[in-house]
Amino acid sequence: MGGETQIVTVDIGGTHARFAIASIASEGTITLGEPVTLHTSNHASFQTAWEDFRSQQGGALPDNLAIAAAGRINADIIRFTNNPWIIRPPLIEEKLGVSTHLVINDFEAVAHAAAIASEDQFLHLAGPDTPLPSNGTISVLGPGTGLGVAHFKRLSPAKYYVQATEGGHGDFAPLDSIEDTILARLRQRHTRVSNERVVAGPAIVDIYQALAAMEGRAIVERSDVEIWTAGTNGEDSLAAAAVDRFCLALGSVAGDIALVQGASGVVIAGGLGYRIRETLLSSGFADRFCAKGRFASLMATLPVKLITHPQPGLLGAAAAFAQLHLEPQ
Questions:
Q1: What is the pLDDT of residues 215-240, one digit of tens each?
Q2: What CATH number is associated with residue 40?
Q3: Is 234 exposed, middle or buried (0-12, 13-18, 19+ CB in 10 A)?
Q4: 0.90 exceeded by pTM
């Protein structure tokens, strides 16, 4: 491959669709242009959002496209988790006027971003303060609207393979009586309580209400955003306790994922993780990550990082495109 390849990279979630033009150099370095964020509610379809972005770019776009989509990726039709748009992959090239395209799951894209991000784009959270290993498996998980879980395996310092998973839907395992209370509350609504019911952004509401009930307080209806805000700025001690409890649970789940995947390191991703990074550092996250009985000493050897790249979905979609379409097969 000679010169640079330009592609449009897109990260589509429930509320926003982010677009950027990426340049992929011959040696594989990816440079993102200035991202453009569009509200999904302001556009009838992905195609009309695409046309809006194309207009903003002067009416012409590269004819390569990579999409990270917050939904299950199917060959014929893609429906989004919190977004009424529908994408039909067989029609993408005809409808959008591109010659090559790739559609992957949004968290799969995040794992690609974690695989290629430079060391200065990680914040150390736990374990030895060393770079992520240049070989072996790296677990990647991110609490957001749900709980994304993936991993990538390094085949060499420059080669890796990403595996998307549904690891966020493993069973939640309480570690103390407070988590027993949270689990009991969730079981009133869910026959099976997965990790995602406790370690995801909206779950802070159930954690908060469980703690209130445990103390005999009246249950006050508050949104997840209100609780996260009050819990991280010191306004409300009960909300702060809920955020601390979330961090403990995230540490436990991250440790479980690392054990299951045979990881040599772990990356926490997602906007929520970044917003509570200072709380994670001062919480019991690291202790819970290592609290695996006979494997505690092993867990203490694993570096745990938080990716700080501002647009991992856009970067990761471009990286996946480069790996599939531009690397020698």
A1: 999 888 899 999 999 999 988 999 99
A2: 3.30.420.40
A3: exposed
A4: yes
